[in-house]
Design brief:
ATP binds at residue 337. This protein has helices at 9-33, 218-227, 251-274, 279-290, 301-308, 347-356, 390-393, 404-423, 492-507, 524-533, 545-561, 573-581, and strands at 39-41, 44-46, 51-52, 65-69, 73-78, 81-89, 94-99, 129-133, 142-145, 147-155, 165-166, 182-186, 200-209, 229-232, 238-241, 247-249, 297-298, 314-318, 321-327, 333-339, 367-373, 376-382, 427-430, 439-441, 447-449, 456-459, 471-473, 610-612. By secondary structure, it is of the alpha+beta class. A 6-stranded mixed β-sheet has the order 3-4-5-6-7-14, covered by helices on one side. A 6-stranded mixed β-sheet has the order 17-21-22-20-19-18, with helices on both faces. Strands 9-8-15-16 form a 4-stranded mixed β-sheet.
């Protein structure tokens, strides 16, 4: 069918016929199930709607399949997790389960996978709410919450708050990917990203019985996790009768559900053939639904307008859209990035939510929330009052506001942020666009890595990625993204970009200078290498001996990071951090860096849409190569 046409009447009739046949088939299956005898696994009676894996196909509902495993353990596999069944109550339609990774005699044991209320939605086999009441229509009933969330956190500094319960009684209860930090849990539903303590990050979310009414000791909370949490299989249109404690289902509601389903199918067909150009928005919604356990808050577009006072204060503009200053109801300032039209099916938006949405680190900009309404997409970030790093290291006139000690602290902070992205999360995050413009500074000049539009995720057990096109900003892109014969694309691409950034921070100038007085100074890293090789120091006006040593260390580390071949660079960002924290005298000189290898690059403007290419008339300032989340320098 041609795009833009309505579905034909015959197609709609066939669709409705299929819906009717499905309903008849479901009724037939219900009759079949009545003929099945209950199965047993240990002490558990397995009856309709449940079934065991090896029961006859006519028995039970495949959506409620359980497994009877060794030692007669009844197991439920749900959302990638493994749960032991503790009890099944057929009178009130609840099943109580516990994570298989939790152990009664080991209070340091924690759930293996995250699970929260965001995983459950209407129409799913299981649900965490029940409708209860006496007689009358099903919709006039009270929602009862069976389970509620428990949040596992790691904080860099101790926290004293009624919302945080210390895990100190269980010394092994450390779930952070790093050994440093203080571990806490919270069962208070008032804890959101917007009021998460600074220097704290959420490591895991899980479910706990709603019977736990407040934060007790961690031992008590762990015992509650061992008890398990309850789910119900009561469907939409049904409720628990308070007098009989049994389930009543409204035939009217079920009939309405079938009619509603048919209408939805018709709308879906019309939508599919009439509005194909909406596929981009569908991709985004599909991603958000499948990853709805992410912690950022979803705002409406009207909320975004209120935060920005009608988009009154514009902070910057770039290839991905515009950025506006806003304020939350709590008074906190935010930077709101309004995404422009995209040629990548919203992939840039998905990249940012998928990567930065799941992490919280002092050197990574915090994503507070997002908005998706049709073509309108926005990202809400913490506000960075001191702007981007390029505004401080590339000043054309006057002294830089950053001394060499502060420049070193910023460099070390950026390195730690990238290191966290590479090894501190469930998946490796490769940024692919590290440059001064994407390093933001807060009010105390703490650096934060930002702009994850080009980022990619990679499993922890894999060391390389396959890319169909180069990505990043010219001058910072690792050469292996262009040259196929020098090595694969890995975390070392970010190491190269960081090296170019570090070279510019230390030298307070661009690495490429086409109007340099001497040809040897056109490529700054080569000139630095030659100076060191000849036993000369880089002269810094009015600098102390300590500042000279700090600068030399930064430049040597940068020279290691920007080696042409990935195999000659540091093995990881952790190694780079170690080199920066170490003594200058312990560093050896690397081979001389080159701007180009022997072979010609494989570069095609049309095949590399995700690469930022400076124009012939563009100045050395790269601030327009991507969106800024900060205030303009002249504001």
């Amino acid at each position: 069918m041609a795009a833009g046409r309505l579905a034909s009447p015959s197609q709609l009739f066939i669709a409705l016929l299929l819906v009717s046949l499905c309903c008849l088939s479901c009724n037939a299956k219900d009759d079949y199930r009545q003929q099945c005898e209950p199965s047993w696994c240990g002490k558990h009676n397995i009856s309709h709607p449940f079934r065991l894996k090896h029961d006859p196909e006519k028995c039970g509902d495949s959506r409620y399949e359980l497994s009877c495993e060794k030692n007669n353990l009844t197991v439920l596999y749900l959302y990638s997790g493994t749960y032991y069944v503790q009890a099944i109550n057929y009178n009130n339609y609840t099943i109580r389960v516990v994570d298989a990774n939790l152990h009664k005699d080991n209070c340091s044991s924690i759930p293996h996978y995250s699970l929260s209320s965001y995983n459950f939605s209407d129409g799913d086999p299981y649900w965490i709410y029940q409708r209860r009441g006496k007689g009358g229509p099903w919709w006039d009933k009270v929602h009862v919450k069976l389970s509620k969330p428990i949040i596992f956190l790691t904080c860099e500094t101790p926290v004293i708050s009624p919302l945080y319960v210390d895990t100190a009684p269980c010394n092994g209860a450390m779930w952070s990917s790093t050994s440093n930090g203080h571990s806490y849990v919270s069962v208070d539903e008032r804890l959101f990203v917007s009021n998460l303590r600074e220097f704290c990050r959420i490591e895991l979310m899980f479910m706990i019985s709603s019977q736990l009414t407040k934060n007790n000791s961690y031992i008590d909370i762990h015992n509650e996790m061992i008890y398990g949490f309850e789910l119900t299989w009561v469907q939409w249109g049904c409720y628990i009768d308070s007098d009989t404690n049994k389930v009543n289902c409204s035939r009217l509601a079920l009939g309405a559900r079938a009619i509603l389903g048919a209408l939805c199918l018709i709308v879906l067909l019309i939508y599919k053939f009439k509005r194909r150009h909406l596929s981009m928005y569908g991709n985004i919604e599909e991603f958000l639904q499948s990853h709805n356990n992410l912690m950022p808050i979803r705002y409406s577009y009207s909320n975004i307008r209120k935060m920005t006072k009608g988009f009154k204060d514009k902070l910057g503009e770039g290839g991905y859209g515009s950025v506006y200053k806003g304020k939350l109801r709590s008074g906190r300032l935010v930077a709101i990035k309004m995404m422009g039209k995209s040629k990548t099916n919203g992939q840039d938006f998905i990249n940012e939510v998928a990567t930065i949405g799941r992490i919280h680190h002092v050197n990574v900009v915090q994503l507070i929330g997002y908005c998706v309404e049709g073509s309108k997409r926005a990202l809400v970030y913490e506000f960075m009052s001191n702007g981007s790093l390029d505004k401080h290291i590339f000043l054309k006139e006057g002294p830089s506001s950053l001394n060499y000690k502060k420049s070193f602290e910023i460099s070390l902070g950026v390195a730690r942020g990238i290191d966290y992205l590479h090894r501190g999360c469930e998946m490796q995050i490769f940024h692919f666009d590290i440059k001064p413009h994407n390093i933001l500074l807060n009010e105390t000049f703490v650096p934060k890595v930002s702009d994850f539009g080009l980022a990619r995720l990679c499993p922890l057990d894999e060391s390389s990625l396959t890319l169909t096109a180069a990505r990043g900003t010219i001058g910072y892109i690792a050469p292996e993204l262009f040259y196929k014969n020098i090595g694969g694309v890995s975390n070392k691409a970010d190491i190269y970009s960081f090296g170019m950034l570090l070279m510019e921070i230390a030298g307070k100038r661009k690495n490429l200078n086409a109007v340099a007085a001497h040809s040897s100074q056109i490529y700054f890293p080569s000139w630095v290498y030659d100076q060191f090789s000849e036993g000369k120091d880089i002269e810094i006006e009015d600098s102390t001996e300590d500042e000279m040593k700090i600068t030399k260390k930064m430049l040597i580390v940068a020279l290691w990071c920007i080696q042409m071949k990935p195999s000659e660079r540091p093995t990881s960002m952790s190694k780079v951090v170690q080199m920066l924290e170490g003594e200058t005298e312990a560093l050896q000189m690397p081979p001389k860096p080159f701007l180009y290898p022997q072979d010609k690059p494989v570069v095609d403007d049309e095949d590399n849409p995700e690469t930022t290419w400076p124009s012939s008339t563009q100045s050395n300032d790269d601030s327009k190569d991507s969106i800024s989340l900060i205030q303009n320098a002249d504001n």
